[in-house]
């Protein structure tokens, strides 16, 4: 999501230094869903999914030598091709590490039996491929907050930090997802200023690659990085994938959110907007697409979201303008906090929602 103004500074060589940690917990009474995984070998093959499974996630990590890594085939036992089956086509997963979760909409059930897959990597052998599965619908999500060179935030209970995160948590709670635990970590890095430089061609700034791959955190948590700038044009946030990898430490494992010089400098409105952006980008990371794209021709795969068939519209003119996953920020007059039942279905089946 992009607000007006603010151009990013140039990126310098990255370095990391851990400075502290903390923890908040807010456990739900709901029993966690059960999960499983299997390691796969070869860029194509098959894997067996047991009965009672509600979601399947295929994950491939080509590390830093992958050239435009993509998941080109993910077929269920009934030969239903899940990759690319949308109302209107949206981009598939791509980058140095990729993932695809089924269901990715409210009409794609998981079928027991043998599934086929194919990973395209243009001549390279993908060193890590896994299939993850989950039974039941999740309601709890864990969050690891990494503050990157944020000198004005010195503790987890900082009121500006908690106001921003509180907005995010309230949006997810209103849509049925409880943030059950939050951990905090402080690091120093020149990559707190993200530029548009993408030397390895993975459709993501190099600074994000370094921040995400350098973070070997708990893979049961979504990784959220607060940076000073998220890129040119005043970008508020970026997700590492749709969905992102269900493991930490890859070049696409995380979400960034920009503080534009520090959370303490932001107005209450701007902190609310940043909280909405965090919810939006984590929505991407868990598998939600924009309900409509700016050209008015591309839409998400969920059946019950609105479609705005206009070019470069303002949110107020669109049936999905107040949806959390609309492509552009709504501003103070249009809070974007709602999700459709179909979108909530996708979130509950995301691998990191337990």
UniProtKB/TrEMBL annotation:
GO terms for molecular function: metallopeptidase activity. SUPFAM superfamilies: Metalloproteases ('zincins'), catalytic domain (SSF55486). This is Peptidase M43 pregnancy-associated plasma-A domain-containing protein.
């Amino acid at each position: 999501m992009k607000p007006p103004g603010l151009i990013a500074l140039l990126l310098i060589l990255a370095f990391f230094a851990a400075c502290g940690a903390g923890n908040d917990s807010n456990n739900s009474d709901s029993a966690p869903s059960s999960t499983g995984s299997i390691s796969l070998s070869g860029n194509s093959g098959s894997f067996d999914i047991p009965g009672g499974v509600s979601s399947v996630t295929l994950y491939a990590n080509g590390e830093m030598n992958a050239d435009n890594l993509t998941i080109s085939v993910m077929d269920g036992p009934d030969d239903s091709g899940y990759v690319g089956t949308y109302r209107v086509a949206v981009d598939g997963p791509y980058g140095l590490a990729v993932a695809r979760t089924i269901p990715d909409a409210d009409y794609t059930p998981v079928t027991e039996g043998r599934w086929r897959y194919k990973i395209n990597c243009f001549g390279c052998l993908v060193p890590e491929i896994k299939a993850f599965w989950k039974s039941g619908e999740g309601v709890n999500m864990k969050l690891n907050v990494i503050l990157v060179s944020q000198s004005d935030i010195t503790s987890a209970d900082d009121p500006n930090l908690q106001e921003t995160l509180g907005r995010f948590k309230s949006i997810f709670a209103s849509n049925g997802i409880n943030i059950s635990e939050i951990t905090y970590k402080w690091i120093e890095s020149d990559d707190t200023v993200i530029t548009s430089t993408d030397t390895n061609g993975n459709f993501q700034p190099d600074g994000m690659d370094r921040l995400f791959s350098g973070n070997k955190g708990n893979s049961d948590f979504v990784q959220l990085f607060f940076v000073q700038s998220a890129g040119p044009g005043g970008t508020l946030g970026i997700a590492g994938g749709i969905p992102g990898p269900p493991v930490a430490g890859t070049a696409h494992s995380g979400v960034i959110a920009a503080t534009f010089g520090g959370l303490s400098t932001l107005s209450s409105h701007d902190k609310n907007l940043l909280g909405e952006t965090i919810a939006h980008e984590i929505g991407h990371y868990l598998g939600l697409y924009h309900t409509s794209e700016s050209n008015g021709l591309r839409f998400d795969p969920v059946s019950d979201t609105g479609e705005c068939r206009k070019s470069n519209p303002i949110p107020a003119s669109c049936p999905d303008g107040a949806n959390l996953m609309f492509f552009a920020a709504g501003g103070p007059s249009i809070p974007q906090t709602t999700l459709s039942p179909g979108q909530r279905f996708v979130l509950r089946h995301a691998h990191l929602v337990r």
